[in-house]
Sequence to fold (231 residues):
Amino acid sequence: MCEGAIFILKRRKLILALAVIFALNIAAAALVQAASAETYERGSSGATVREIQQRLLDWGYYSGSVDGIYGSETEKAVRYFQEKNGLAVDGRTGPATLEALGMPSGAAQDAYGDASGELALLARLISAEARGEPYAGQVAVGAVVLNRVEHPSFPNTIAEVIFQPGAFSCMLDGQWDEPVADSAWAAAREAMSGSDPSGGAIYYFNPETATSAWIWSRPEILTIGRHRFCA
Fold:
């Protein structure tokens, strides 16, 4: 092979190697950007921060301006929200806090494609409240949440129903922070599609552990697993 041909071959190999390195650097930068995009903290800004502020304001955790700027007041509100909802208290809005706010993170979307924030919240609630229950009982728990959304005595969004103070014991006993069971995702989807094994219930309780005299006064509709569903 002549020297000219050897030179051209070496040059092509060098160009190819540089192209591969460049592509790898671009991919690595994209991964870093995607990871950082799931966490918002002091200094962050934009539409997602504005949505975080609006939700915290609507739910009574924040009283500042909805300006899309993650300042000290927003950080304080996030800490308050995290403390009240059994989350790690760091003032940063990462995947777990985004999910609790009803805003889909990468983790929530990975499980079931384009899972919405509401679906993620409902699945977590079902998993926390009905882990180990028959599948129909899990769907029924999800249906209770949706029945409350439609009932005039309760808030009118899934997130507000779930985070209503004292509404669900899983917020207090640590179950909310446990991994979400696969069956809970399926049950949440079924409940949101209109299935209601609870028969229109807006309450449920476990007769073996219930201590409230008031809940025993609610008219019984049916029992599924360990839960009694009531009107």
In short: The CA atoms of residues 17 and 110 lie 33 Å apart. The first strand starts at residue 203 and ends at 205. The chain has eleven helices and three strands.
